[in-house]
Amino acid sequence: MLASGMAQAEAELTARIEKCEAGSPEAEILDAHMEILHDPCLAEDIQARIDSGVCCAASVWDAYQAMIDMLLEVEDPVFRGRATDMVDVRNRLLRCCEGLQETDFSALREPIVLVANELTPSDTISLPRDMLVAIAAETGTNTSHAAILARSWGIPAVLGVPGLVAAAQNREGAIVDAVDGAVIFDPDEETLALYAARRQNMNAEAAADAAAVRQPVVTTDGVAVATEINVGKIEDIETDAAGYADGVGLFRSEFLFMQAEQLPDEEAQYRAYSKVLKAFGERPVILRTLDIGGDKELSYFSLPKEENPFLGLRALRLCFAHEDIFRTQLRAACRASAEGNLWLMFPMVSSLDDFRRAKAILRDVQNELGAEGISCDPQMKVGIMIETPAIALMAEAAARETDFASIGTNDLCQYTCAADRMNTTVAPYNAPENPGFLRLVAQIARAYTQEGKPLGVCGELAADPRLGPVLVGMGIRSLSVNGASLGSVRRNLSGKSCADMAALSEQVLACTTIQDVKDILG
Ligand code: PEP
Ligand code: MG
């Protein structure tokens, strides 16, 4: 198993090296990977572990991990880079030991329906979106990042269908129904006709939504509601929605990291952030600092193995543990702040202690840049994502201390309802209609309204046609949604009065059960 795995890994690397220009950075990285693969110390360690009775996969993992941990102890960035390469080679070797082939989407010649067991966000972000008709996977839920990404591209995605991969074997076609969450293989004529009619209706709606993309939201009683977009891939700024949105309510900076082969340096980050800021001119761009962990991993950066990664060393916590990475990002963001209207936002804050600690590091970075004579926006707003119940319950104090906040309902809902957003089995418990969760959101809205500080919602709930109006009714005046939904959200809100939405929200907040809320919203 190890010998065949080594042979396959070597063949894959050789093939990739041959395709690269000699001396190019990619060729150099791949050469380094080949060296790691044949490292005699590693080979000896793996063999010793196998000889002592440990299985091949665990031996490979443990031998590499021991070396990676050692390298991560060293402060020198060169050693850290080496650890990153080792993670990459380890993953390749593990796959090859199982005889699995590397997925090469660049070979696709016609669009496909992608059926998978599990789709990680880094898998998803590297998919060629023009070659995807739809996505279906056995694991995950509506608020998994794979689903969020697909939705932002306007691609139907159904996650959390058990037995899907086996059911897909030897099938010729499939319907992926993202409205009802169903996947139908080899549909018969009648089903095809039914879906053709449904698609026709949806196309008519889509045309009306496309027209509404250009219209900022003013309710029928004259209240303006900012409608912004969430940006993942930098290409998201080239869409129609980006041209007309009121700003970027959430720039998921970690996707830049997930698309890279190694940690993007200050210059690469500065270029990416500047590009987005310039594209939006005076419109605000809320840049969220690195939110890795949970279901978001970096192929080249080893995260600790955790029982509950969503409750673990995630986002800001990870940045505190790797302050060098955090500082590099803050430097890039502060430099880019001179190019537009940047608001900086920290994710996964669970107390004001977190916020103060992050702000102190930011201040230090700003002073450092000042001493270097580099100009930054001195007025840059600094805020938080409200995603944990602990900070939500401190909303009044948070509203006094922060410049703004955005409610990350995807996480706030899972943490409040104690139902993992990745776990299909408990998906019904992760319900935004839970009155406990809605009351918490209303409490945050009251605190920020009273303090007169900007508050938005950037989780998927903002695009929910039933609950979006409830959020506005609570007093929230900024909703950030995936670009593909901007038109429908604008159309939905512009046709309503703020007074009606406030009355609806009061009705909903008086409910005591999920079912009552559902009954009201229809
Ligand atoms: C959220 O938690 O609502 C959010 C927007 O962040 P993410 O989905 O990336 O965790
Ligand atoms: Mg979140």
Give a quick precis of the structure.
This protein is of the alpha/beta class. It has helices spanning 2-19, 25-37, 40-51, 56-73, 77-97, 121-125, 145-152, 164-168, 189-212, 240-244, 254-259, 266-280, 315-321, 323-336, 352-371, 389-392, 395-401, 409-417, 435-451, 468-473, 486-494, 498-509, 514-521; strands at 112-116, 132-137, 157-159, 174-177, 182-185, 217-218, 224-231, 248-252, 284-288, 341-346, 381-386, 405-407, 455-457, 478-482. Helix 10 (240-244) links the parallel strand 7 (224-231) and strand 8.
Commentary on this structure:
The chain is α/β, with parallel strands linked by helices. It is 50% helix and 12% strand. It has 23 helices and 14 strands. Strands 6, 7, 8, 9, 10, 11, 12, 13 and 14 form a 9-stranded mixed beta sheet that branches. Strand 6 and strand 7 form a beta hairpin. The radius of gyration is 24 Å and the shape is globular. The chain starts with a helix and ends with a helix. The model has no long low-confidence stretch (mean pLDDT 93). Magnesium ion binds next to helix 18.
Strand content: 5-15%
Which class do the helix and strand fractions yield? alpha/beta
Terminus-to-terminus distance:
56 Å
Largest sheet features: 9 strands, mixed
Total helical elements = 23
What's the quaternary structure here? single chain
Instruction: Return Rg in Å.
Output: 24 Å
The helical percent reads 40-55%
Bound molecules: phosphoenolpyruvate, magnesium ion
Kindly state the number of beta strands. Answer: 14
Shape: globular
Mean pLDDT: 93
The residue ranges in which pLDDT falls below 50 over 5 or more consecutive positions are none
